[in-house]
Amino acid sequence: MGLPRNKQTDELFASMLLLGSVEDCYRYFEDLCTIQEVRDMGLRLEIAKALDEGGSYQSAIEKTGVSTATIGRVKRCLNYGAGGYRLILDRIRDKGEQI
Fold first, then answer.
1. Are 77 and 85 in contact (CB under 8 A)?
2. Rounded Cα–Cα distance for residues 48 and 73 (Å)
3. Cα dihedral sign, 60-71-75-45
4. C-alpha separations of 99 from 28, 68, 95 in Å
């Protein structure tokens, strides 16, 4: 399955690589996405971090208020996905950054 690999998707991802700061991201994503889309992506990252640290479904529900289906999807992606969550979680850990 996976994301479509085409010129539009390549250009979208390349445009994200040009963002140099969190402030740049806020400006770009406010124009690019709805508030709910950005919120949902942020919650998924929070869930991935919690699950990676050994948190339970229940603690993730209590922390974020999302459905078990969303938590299950994030967990499947962590374990069997394309490796995107693992890539970013490892980079966050390697830098010792809290996001």
1. yes
2. 10
3. negative
4. 19, 23, 11
- Give the integer Cα–Cα distance in Å for 18 and 94: 22
Q: How far apart are CA 30 and CA 38, in angstroms?
A: 8
Q: What is the pLDDT of residues 31-87, one digit of tens each?
A: 999 999 999 999 999 999 999 999 988 888 888 899 999 999 999 999 999 999 999
Question: Hey, what are 12's tokens?
Answer: 């979208």
3-class DSSP state of 4:
coil
Count other Cβ atoms within 10 Å, centred on residue 73.
15
Q: How many residues can be counted in the chain?
A: 99
Query: Which residue type occupies 37?
Result: E
